[in-house]
Write a structure and sequence with these properties.
32% helix; single chain; globular; seven-stranded parallel sheet; 8 helices; alpha/beta
Length: 293
């Protein structure tokens, strides 16, 4: 192995160890689900009067049946809610820095979802994500959200979008170090059902590789050339003929650094802010490159 590659690997490994130590300190703070933001007070529609000459008051039908139809908030992309979804045996504490970066740069609604560490089926976690997305849409009035998933979290979100109709609710899905083609790391971990679902050729990955015509969500997948959890590293690239995908290659950092590093955070913000409407039938493959010192 070339000296430069060895040096880069040593630096990335040292950074991974430091991030792991910091994350272990923060981990207990993320075990409990976060308190959700209060729902905005609904605006009341003025009651109609039957006649201005008859002397009658407001129509009782208006008082008994208030307008409860969801309101679509016509605001810029920066106000669209963002849902953060962690990876295996992790929790929302992994997104402390990324969340701060998003809120400081105009995202006023950023929420994290914890799924149970006892979850044994990726599809069950995807259904939970769908319920949270619907709850956020109802509470905020937005018709769409953005999702950022790390590792397994990205795969869960992708399953929701592709297989459970989430493409009508998720504008942009950003995935950080997600094993789209499966990873062969740590073969002894196959005792865990979720790990088996992340193996090449698993039933879940075969489902995701199947046709997805008309999928409206925009996918952005960040993959690192020194990610030792993604084996091979290219498995974190998303290649699918039916999906609108942009793959971003990150250099010089490992798996744990992806949701933490400021350069990646800047790339995530850019990906979310660029998430305009997708024209039906338009599919394109983009190749970006982010160099991290």
């Amino acid at each position: 192995m070339e000296l430069t590659k060895v040096t880069a690997l040593m630096k990335a490994t040292a950074l991974e160890v430091a991030i792991l130590a910091g994350h272990l300190v923060l981990y207990p703070s993320g075990i409990v689900a976060e308190r959700l933001a209060a729902a905005p007070a609904p605006e009341k529609t003025p009651a109609r009067t039957r006649s201005t000459t008859s002397g009658e008051g407001p129509d009782p039908a208006d008082e008994e049946a208030p307008d409860t139809a969801p309101t679509s908030i016509a605001q810029g992309d920066g106000s669209r809610p963002v849902v953060l979804l962690h990876g295996l045996v992790d929790n929302r504490s992994v997104f402390v820095l990324l969340r701060r970066s998003l809120t400081r740069n105009g995202r006023d609604c950023v929420e994290s979802l914890n799924y149970s560490p006892l979850t044994c089926d990726l599809r069950a976690a995807a259904e939970l994500l769908g319920r949270r997305v619907d709850e956020i849409r109802a509470r905020t009035g937005h018709t769409e959200v953005d999702v950022v998933g790390h590792s397994l979290g990205g795969l869960i979100a992708r399953y929701y979008v592709q297989r459970l109709g989430g493409d009508s609710r998720v504008r942009t899905l950003v995935m950080l170090g997600t094993p789209h083609a499966g990873t062969t790391v740590a073969p002894l971990a196959d005792a865990h059902p979720l790990v088996r679902q992340m193996r090449p050729g698993s039933e879940v990955l075969r489902e995701l590789a199947g046709p997805a015509p008309g999928c409206r969500t925009r996918f952005v997948s960040f993959w690192s050339d020194l990610d030792q959890v993604m084996v091979p590293v290219e498995t974190a690239r998303l290649d699918h003929p039916d999906l609108l995908v942009h793959n971003v290659r990150v250099s010089g950092i490992g798996h744990l650094a992806l949701p933490v590093h400021p350069t990646v955070a800047a790339g995530v913000r850019e990906a979310l802010d660029a998430g305009g409407p997708v024209t039906s039938g338009t599919r394109e493959e983009g190749h970006g490159s982010t160099s991290v010192a």
